Amino acid sequence: MKPLDIAIAGAGPAGLAAALFLSRAGHRVELIERFEQPSPVGSGLLMQPTGLTVLDALGLSPAIHALGNRIDRLHGADARSGRTVLDVRYDALAGGRYGLAVHRAALFATLHDAVAAAGLHIRTGITLAKAETRQARTALHDPEGEIVGDYDLVVDATGARSQLAAASVVAPAVRELPWGAFWATLDCDGIAHDARALVQRYDAAKVMIGVLPVGRAHAGEGQKVAFFWSLKVADADAVQRAGLQHWKARILDYWPETAPFLDQITDWDQLTLARYAHRTTLPPVADGIAFIGDSAHSTSPQLGQGANMALLDAAALAHALSAASTLEEGLAAYAAARRNHVRLFQLLSYVFTPFYQSDSRAIAWLRDRLVATVAKVPPAPQILAAIVSGTLADPFTRAGLQECCWPERALQEA
């Protein structure tokens, strides 16, 4: 295929990774961002072996490891009884896999610095309203109807509430999820915590509190944790009206050891309310547009797959185009490459979410008694580790990737 003129809408992790892959494949790439200054949104996230493999393929593994924090297990307990409810260990699988918790700013900066070093152009302060296909080219329009640019291909990486996806012929049905979370990034140097685990406390499925050590947002800073509290989005205003001290007292009642973290929160402005939606664009291509990341699929963060799936999409799209003789063939190959993996993990996220975010005491009872017991019996630990790792179905081969050799990678990053 001849080199293409490609617009990438959205300069988040998905868009930045796609720009790197596609430019390295010889295509002419232009990034379009609605904010005047591209920047990350949110607190921390967990990079799985899938996402880490993509970053390694981009040559960015040393940079992200220098900022992130290795995670070896996910552990959750009932806040009242102390009973272990969740215990997923990466080493249940052979191969030496692990997770890497990172601040969103660290992931963004790692990718953005690489884009800048490659000399790729980012046009900022441009809002996109729709795309129009004309004579095998795709024109992007702003809200006033003015043409922003004309391209062989548009890659939509504008997120879960993408206007381009909503206006497309494959516009997905959107189910706004009732549960969200308050997030904060807090200092953790000198504070007792499990530095190698995502630790959570539950009260049935209506309360979930978590601490994720995410390393540094920027070189030279102290270590941070992402602290989160699950709640219904509709209840957020009432929680804030009741006052910060009332909210902190509720958390301390469940988990007194979080006091040194809560002491750092003195204003609601330090907390971000995250809202989630379940949607899947099938197929993730239409009228000269390839959808990647949350534009293609989004759901709750229970399995920690969002950013990792986005990075896999970027790699798979570039690989599919490189092996195709026409753009249409390449887009069809991209859709096929991601179909099974996306559908599987969208389904798993949809099924697992009520076990940790819902009003159902029956589901919570089942989780705490039956599921927690079964999870200890082989091959359940291995299956859970594969789900969390994002490797229950092979995501690598059809994206043109070879999974890292984890013992060697851990030795290099030690």
Give a short synopsis of this structure.
With 414 residues, the protein is α+β, with helices and mostly antiparallel strands. It contains 13 helices and 22 strands. The protein has a single domain, classed as FAD/NAD(P)-binding domain.
Characterise the protein shown here.
The structure is a single chain. Helix content is 36%, strand content 26%. The protein has helices at 13-24, 49-57, 61-67, 104-117, 163-166, 236-242, 244-254, 259-262, 306-322, 327-356, 361-374, 380-389, 406-413; strands at 5-9, 28-32, 44-47, 69-71, 73-78, 84-89, 99-103, 121-123, 130-134, 137-141, 147-151, 153-156, 175-176, 179-187, 197-203, 207-215, 224-232, 272-274, 277-280, 285-286, 289-291, 297-298. The mean pLDDT is 96.
List keywords for this structure.
oxidoreductase; FAD/NAD(P)-binding domain; 13 helices; 26% strand; 414 residues
Strand order of the largest sheet: 6-5-15-16-17-14-18
Shape: globular
Main beta sheet: 7 strands, mixed
- Supply the CATH superfamily name: FAD/NAD(P)-binding domain
What's the total number of strands? 22
Count of alpha/pi helices: 13
Overall residue-averaged pLDDT value: 96
Distance between the first and last residues' Cα: 41 Å
**What amount of the residues lies in strands?**
25-35%
In the CATH scheme, the class would be: Alpha Beta
CATH topology, by name, is FAD/NAD(P)-binding domain
- Could you say which structural class the secondary elements and strand pairing correspond to? alpha+beta
Q: Which regions are unreliable across 5 or more consecutive residues at pLDDT < 50? A: none
CATH architectural name = 3-Layer(bba) Sandwich
User: Percentage of helical residues?
Assistant: 25-40%
Radius of gyration, whole Å: 21 Å
Number of domains: 1
